[in-house]
Known about the structure:
The relative contact order is 0.09. α10 (210-221) crosses α14 (375-396). This protein starts with a strand and ends in a 9-residue tail after the last helix. The chain is built from 14 helices and 19 strands. It has helices at 15-25, 36-41, 44-51, 69-76, 87-95, 101-108, 121-125, 127-138, 164-178, 210-221, 249-259, 302-308, 325-335, 375-396; strands at 2-7, 29-34, 79-85, 113-117, 142-143, 147-150, 156-160, 185-190, 195-196, 202-203, 225-230, 242-245, 265-268, 275-277, 296-298, 314-321, 340-345, 355-362, 367-374. The chain has 2 domains: 2-178, Rossmann fold (3-Layer(aba) Sandwich), CATH 3.40.50.1950; 185-275 and 295-396, Rossmann fold. The radius of gyration is 24 Å and the shape is elongated. 36% of the residues lie in helices and 23% in strands. It is α/β, with parallel strands linked by helices and 405 residues long. Flavin mononucleotide is lined by residues 8-11, 35, 37-38, 86-89, 118-119, 123.
Amino acid sequence: MNVALAVTGCIAAYKAVDVMRGLQKAGVSVQVVLTRAAARFVAPLTFEALSGRRVITDMFRGGENVQIQHIAVAQQVGSLAVVPATANILAKFAHGIADDFLSTLYISTPAPVLLAPAMNVEMWNHPAVQANVEILRSRGHEFVNPEPGVLACGMEGEGRLAEVETIVSRILNLVANSESLAGLKVLVTAGPTVEDIDPVRYLSNRSTGKMGYALAQAARARGAEVFLVSGPTHLTVPAGVHATFVRSAGEMKEAVLKLYPEADIVVKAAAVSDYRPADYSHQKIKKGEKETAWALSPTEDILSLLGKVKQHQILVGFAAETENLSGQARDKMTRKNLDLIVANDVSRGVFGAENATVQIFTRTGESVTLENQSKRTIAERILDTAQAALAARKTLDVPGQTRRT
Ligand SMILES: Cc1cc2nc3c(=O)[nH]c(=O)nc-3n(C[C@H](O)[C@H](O)[C@H](O)COP(=O)(O)O)c2cc1C
């Protein structure tokens, strides 16, 4: 497995040598990339002598190689780790500036990215730096945050590069994960749907899409080809994910049915409207003084439909309930022919929150509770469980036969 280890211009650049050696010890093949500034701190020769491999320092290397190097490397690497990461490289990655080898490699590769920043505490806390970190996190990149301590500049505070062992183990995790869904297609739905009543009003719900987007990011980081079908949200589509944007439950059904036959794992995290107005009014409905009633028609139950036509797919549903969580969730899993279901208690204000408490139930009777966990952590556990279900199904399948569950 292949990691591009990029080193940028920090005092802590010398620690990247130990990170490289830690990865090599674990059997990882490492391609080192140095920025010009990094090469002022540590000689490329140090990395070359220890890795036995040429280090890339320059976009315009000239001469003997006719390959476009940043594209060739971009296609080969399994993961990109930047250790240490300067404020400068965070800004260039966040804004797509491509003025040297590393920044051009970043926008050319679909590989998962890990960043281990190191800098002075004032730099780290600067709103510009924090805004860039936020942008990069929202793309699904992983951070090994700097630690508090005495910094090279003599100041004290958060900014020191994290411990080498921590960084090595986080990169190894990324590497292990980055292949686990390679070659598979994952379909995720996210966000609310919106049912128009008239030109100014609509019927919708409180879903923000964070859970579905976290799932898409996590699946992409595991090497899957990911298709996200999203209702309206304010979120950024994770890097490398194919997105289809829809508005109504009807549009979501169409988009999902198109992608379903090819998908291996399908996670329906969207909060699809159960009802739509029976009639759309082309004119704005006038305000009245008296009580009024609007007729609603049920929308089609997409999850049930997918359960009915399921073949090889692992189908994951969500149950947002306000009472009898486990009973309702298990019942929904059976009725809709799901392989697993994620139940959350929406009376506890899950919509829009960063963390949630959920229970994952499988068809084979196991259940796990995740108490107040980040949506990314929950996404990882859902994918672990879906992968286990997929592996179990494959061992049961007779080659050459299509299986109907
Ligand atoms: C002695 C010295 C130490 C530096 N340490 C850091 C640092 O720890 N973090 C950082 O973000 N920038 C640091 N810088 C500034 C970067 O080297 C500078 O922003 C450079 O343009 C980064 O280029 P690069 O991101 O292409 O490597 C340091 C500069 C000098 C001269």
